[in-house]
Amino acid sequence: MPDASWMIKGREFGHCNCAYGCPCQFNALPTYGDCQAVVGMQIDEGYHGPTRLDGLRTVSILKWPGPIHEGKGEASIIIDKRATAAQREALLRILGGQDTVPGATMFQVFSTTFDKVHDPIFADIEFEVDVDARKARLKVADLVEARGEPIRNPVTGNEHRARFDMPNGFEFAAAEVGRGWAKTNGPIRLELADSHAHFADLHLCQTGVIR
Length: 211
What we know:
Strand content: over 45%
Number of domains: 1
Distance between the termini: 20 Å
Structural class: mainly beta
Number of strands: 16
């Protein structure tokens, strides 16, 4: 069993290089053979053992040379610089898949696929996400700039709405699908344009998604 109990309730903007809809959600191979992603998370309520995590933000920059399950990936984690030493340690443990039942969350599953995890970065994180509107804005100094928008009908230009419903998912129970753009610097450099994005309410603990 995990060494410490934890819980996160908040919102997420996840953006990757695949086509709208993200094949990962259907156990299919990535659109272009590899996986590149930027994930912003706003924690509205949370704790790790006795340490509260309310109001903190994180950003994960992730890259795999092939499908995620084949491994050889790398990760760069950015933690809200407002976090105390105890909060930093707690967030790094959660995001690193520690104190979690194996296979229960995306943090733990992804942690088994990394060959390299870069030293954590502590910085100001500007993050706004509206799940229902399928809109997000993410900025970290000169390291990350990303945005998310609704998909638009190519004929009418109207906003198009589609959702994921994941009864057995390890990231969220449901998510709105959209599109995004991102550019990152630092240890992992990515440039993504008009590709898959999702917007989700998160409620996770050491045993998985809380439904």
